Protein: 6-phosphogluconate dehydrogenase, decarboxylating
Organism: Pseudoclavibacter endophyticus
Amino acid sequence: AAANIGVVGLAVMGSNLARNLASREGNTVAVFNRSPERTRALLSEHPEAEFVGTETVQAFADALQRPRTAIIMVQAGAATDAVIDQLTEVFEPGDIIVDGGNALFTDTIRREAAVRETGIHFVGAGISGGEEGALNGPSIMPGGSAESYETLGPILASIAARADDGEPCVTHIGTDGAGHFVKMVHNGIEYADMQLIAESYDLLRHVGGYEPAQIADIFTEWDSGELESYLIQITAEVLRQVDAETGKPLVDVILDAAGMKGTGTWTVQQALALGVPATGIAEAVFARGVSGRADQRAAVRATIDARPQPADVGDTFVDDVRRALYSSKVIAYAQGFDTILAGGAEYGWALDPGAIAKIWREGCIIRARFLNTIAEAYSRNRRLESLIADEFFASAVADGAPAWRRVVSVAALSGVPAPAFSSSLSYYDSIGAERLPAALVQGQRDFFGAHTYRRNDRDGIFHTLWSGDRSEVRTDA
Ligand code: NDP
């Protein structure tokens, strides 16, 4: 057997990952794809790469040194199950199967348990960075057993992106589905971050009166500060792009209906199930949903004058939007990390939020300077209750709050939608409130359903006899 690692599934992600692996000193990569044409194409297009092309699963298994290690990069869902079944037929105990696709983490938990029965290790690994990341260095979030990570860790570290301090953007996240869970939340945070940037653009354009090319310059300037990130950089590039056909800014000819493939929705479903108010991510998913409802939008638009109303923005508007974006972004990440930690508690993973922040510093779509700051917050206090309870973020958000409030009020007054901005601000005001109207909600619940309430002045569980003499009774004594 000639190859020390294998890749199954040679569409864009798999072939790029295989090329990345082959480019590392000492690696020979066995490659296999259901349709052999893809395998042949990869071999002929990249004669320089150390590949062993195989056209049957058996030949693939035979090409691999033992214990075998193979990474699957096929469509998530049934295709992944089909490939796992084929590999477990020909692999042996001690071999390692890695699923690098975007699997739902509960599928990964199920698959890990089933494959473990055969003595083969199964590792669900979230891989972020798109096709370019797969080729040049992604951020990798592997789950699975600690034992399999001993073999796999060095291989993944060799192909992962590297942060400025040289650390590879990969760490063993936790057992079974932990890696895919964290990758899912990464994507949820990505949704929120993109939506916040999009709202910033919309406000600068329709309230501030700036043109796309000017907004591109504004973003480029922001990229030299605390907002420095891949998403800000690509946003500037998209805004600068001019449509060759019409001469208009490209953003003006792209249909305003945002697509999605499901990981944002999964994150929100999980947050709901875990009781985590991931409002920023939820608003971002809902905003994409609103954008896609063309018929409803047309019907409602016909009934209202939706043109932005003139609003007094003052002369600090651009900087206000920058501060609002930063504060809202802190909230989105705080909620994302809350979701991760709640998932860890629910599914029994000892997740390290600082280590997760570190492997997102490069390679993945949300890569940003900001992730270093988050890692530092968790190294100051591993058990931080909330990112915004960290001294640094607490004062950053408090400093930005006046600007944030101005932006949200200007958005409301002018009628330019800013769901993620305003929802993040409400979250901040709620989580930090002295007292919430939840007390009244408890009163209502007790009134119609005898759901009882606690008091803030003494222990016990109480109920008011609403339909009787309205005296209070203690129900737990
Ligand atoms: P696709 O998701 O488009 O999947 C195509 C690959 O799946 C082909 O190799 C195809 O083989 C194979 N396949 C489909 N059905 C089966 C089956 N029943 N049995 C065997 N093989 C099958 O490829 P991508 O490269 O875009 O993505 C691969 C994985 O990586 C996915 O899970 C995706 O979610 C994930 N991912 C993608 C990112 C991206 O930016 N595209 C980023 C991060 C993760 P054939 O050639 O024979 O049809």
In short: The mean pLDDT is 97. Residues 230 and 367 are 6 Å apart (CA to CA). The two ends are 73 Å apart (CA to CA).
